UniProtKB/TrEMBL annotation:
Residues 1-23 are annotated as: Disordered. Residues 2-72, 74-139, 200-269, 272-327, 391-459, 462-517 form the Agenet domain. InterPro entries: Agenet-like_dom, Agenet_dom_plant. Signal peptide: none annotated. Residues 1-22 have a biased composition (Basic and acidic residues). Pfam families: Agenet (PF05641). It comes from the Eukaryota. This is Agenet domain-containing protein.
């Protein structure tokens, strides 16, 4: 039996009609109750008393299923079974339907199913962005299986890792390495084309960067989150650092063409100093601005020139090496002097004037950002007395934070740095953890020693091997473990501190990497 944890996103039937599993409403788990029931808080259903509050209701486990993972939205064919997100019985729900006709502007005519799964006379026109392939949840398996579900006859595990202590080693040998065998009668044969799948467009909830082409903002990339798709090549985005100008203090939302959107660049190993004429991005005025280093003041400061010819002085912690998003891949920028001049003006003359004129240097110092806007730089002496700069500790940086809470030692949680404090600590906002009332993202103070950059993404398409160290995604965080058994693309992972063994799918593991002396080292 699959156990749900507090705060987990699920889909549930309507409280007044729990037997109709062809109408599923998004909800979150508040807690388990007696007799195999769950107390849920619905996202689109609201109570009458008090009015406009999210509805809370206890349902049997049989009326609840996990949230269907985001799937690549294909162009559907007539007769395809789908789920359409639309208003039903007081709130928005995923309603089972069949495609009747393909219309213009990415819209479809669909017929809805009744409680028994038969097509009834109720019809509607639905936009493609509000549809998904239909999946059934049968005895703990998705039917048809998900693309990442290599074998559908493996049982889910519900046990929870106990205390994991950081930096603890053990001398005893791991348990006997054995291959896992599958049991059950439900099997599916999946055909895979040799042709690679085309990468999907940006999915809802994905963090991206948006380019602004307005006058005065050329070369600026603003961090945002995809809210929804609008037609074929436009998206509604919500900016992370910009507020609407209507006085509501709400984050700004805007419809943007796909050509102005790119993924967030991958993390680059820590850079303590930059080189002259190196192309960089500088964090300034709530955005990443493309620029070029004109002069290196010292190991921690540079003068940077931008497309609008402004020159500002920055600490290295507010810079990152510039990368170009080219043909669906990230390429480290490496331009010649002619290309740099075309993009940023006569950089040679600017650099010569900057380094040879003390008056200009004095004026430029007055243009540097205000001290309260500058991020704190962590300095720690190494054995050779050199100084290392933690360039990942700036406002808005995406990081991972180690927990020292009882029972969660050694778990790393993804977060955003919100602010730096005078005591050498930082305020972080977790991306996967919410407050106890589930109303907002959890914020905490964290010591710099418990913060590291997000590890670079390693596409581990082949199987993990026995005894390989991995990070396992569990309870909203990454936990270090060792592979001790496998079957197809499902693995048994052993956690040394608790001597506990859990099962994970391939997609829930990543190669383990250690952050040592400002760089990532593969275990």
């Amino acid at each position: 039996m699959l156990h749900f944890k507090k705060g987990e996103a699920v889909e549930a039937t309507h409280p007044k009609n729990p037997d109709n599993r062809n109408r599923l409403y998004p909800a979150s788990v508040l807690r388990a109750t007696n007799n195999n029931r769950l107390l849920l808080q619905y996202h689109t259903l609201f109570s009458d008393h008090p009015p406009n509050n999210p509805l809370r209701y206890s349902l049997p486990l049989s009326c609840v299923r996990p949230k269907l993972p985001d799937l690549l939205n294909p162009w559907f064919k007539v007769g395809d079974p789908v789920d359409a997100y639309c208003h039903s019985h007081g709130g928005a729900a995923w309603c089972s339907a069949t495609v009747d006709d393909i219309l213009e502007n990415s819209r479809y005519a669909v017929s809805f199913w009744d409680e028994k799964g038969n097509v009834n006379t109720e019809r509607a026109v639905i936009e493609q962005c509000r549809m998904r392939p239909h999946r059934e949840w049968v005895h703990g398996y998705w039917v048809p299986p998900l693309p990442s579900q290599m074998d559908n006859n493996i049982q889910y595990t519900s046990s929870k890792p106990k205390k994991l202590k950081a930096d603890e080693t053990y001398k005893e040998q791991p348990p006997e390495m054995v291959s896992m065998t599958n049991t059950g009668n439900l099997r599916f044969k999946i055909k895979y084309s040799r042709r690679p799948l085309k990468e999907s467009k940006f999915k809802k909830g994905r963090m991206v960067e948006v380019r602004d082409e307005d006058e005065g903002y050329k070369g600026a990339w603003f961090v945002a989150t995809i809210v929804s798709s609008v037609g074929k090549d436009m998206f509604l985005v919500e900016y992370r650092d910009l507020l609407a100008d209507d006085g509501t203090h709400q984050l700004l939302q805007e419809v943007v063409y796909e050509k102005f959107i790119r993924p967030c660049p991958p993390e680059v190993p820590s850079v303590s100093s930059f080189k002259q004429f190196q192309e960089v991005d500088a964090w300034y005025n709530d955005a990443w601005w493309e620029g070029v280093v004109l002069a290196v003041v010292n190991s921690s400061e540079c003068f940077v020139s931008f497309m609008h010819n402004d020159v500002l002085r920055f600490e290295s912690s507010k810079l990152r090496p510039h990368q170009d998003w080219f043909d669906g891949k990230w390429v480290m920028a490496s331009k010649g002097s002619r290309e740099l001049t075309k993009k940023f003006g006569d950089v040679m003359s600017k650099a010569k004037n900057l380094t040879g004129n003390k008056i200009i240097l004095k004026c430029l110092k007055s243009l540097e950002p205000e001290p309260e806007q500058m991020p704190r730089i962590l300095m720690s002496g190494s054995r050779n007395s050199s100084i290392q700069f933690a360039s990942h500790l700036y406002k808005g940086a995406k990081v991972e934070v180690r927990s020292d809470e009882e029972g969660y030692q050694g778990a790393w949680y993804t977060a955003i740095i919100v602010n730096s404090l005078q005591n050498g600590k930082y305020v972080v906002e977790y991306l996967t953890l919410k407050t106890n009332d589930l109303t907002e993202q959890l914020r905490e103070e964290a010591d710099a020693s418990d913060i590291r950059p997000v590890p670079p993404d390693i596409q581990h398409r082949h199987r993990y091997v026995l005894r390989e160290w991995v990070d396992a995604w569990y309870n909203d965080g990454w936990w270090k473990g060792q592979v001790c058994g496998f079957a197809c693309f499902r693995y048994s992972v052993y956690f040394w501190p608790t001597k506990e063994q859990l099962e994970f799918e391939h997609c829930h593991l990543r190669p383990h990497q250690e952050w040592i002396d400002g760089r990532w080292v593969h275990a």
